[in-house]
Specification:
There is one protein chain. The protein is mainly β. It has a domain of 27 residues. It is built from no helices and two strands. The chain has a two-stranded antiparallel ribbon with strand order 1-2. Strand 1 and strand 2 form a beta hairpin. The chain is elongated and about 45 Å long. The protein starts with 19 loop residues before the first strand and ends in an 8-residue tail after the last strand.
Length: 53
């Protein structure tokens, strides 16, 4: 049986984030080490203008 898991991830890069791209790599692991292959993907980024946080 194929077990599936769904997780939502929020990434906040802060005020120093510049326009461009970022590569994110996800690995699953447990106490015995890494489980399976990594998943890697690229995202476009852009500097936020006018945010007051």
């Amino acid at each position: 049986m194929d077990k599936r898991m769904k997780k939502n991830i929020y990434v906040d890069a802060g005020k120093k984030l510049k326009s461009g791209s970022v590569t994110i790599r996800i690995l699953l692991s447990n106490e015995n080490g890494v489980i399976g292959d990594s998943l890697e993907f690229d995202l476009s980024t852009r500097k936020r203008v006018g945010d007051n946080y």
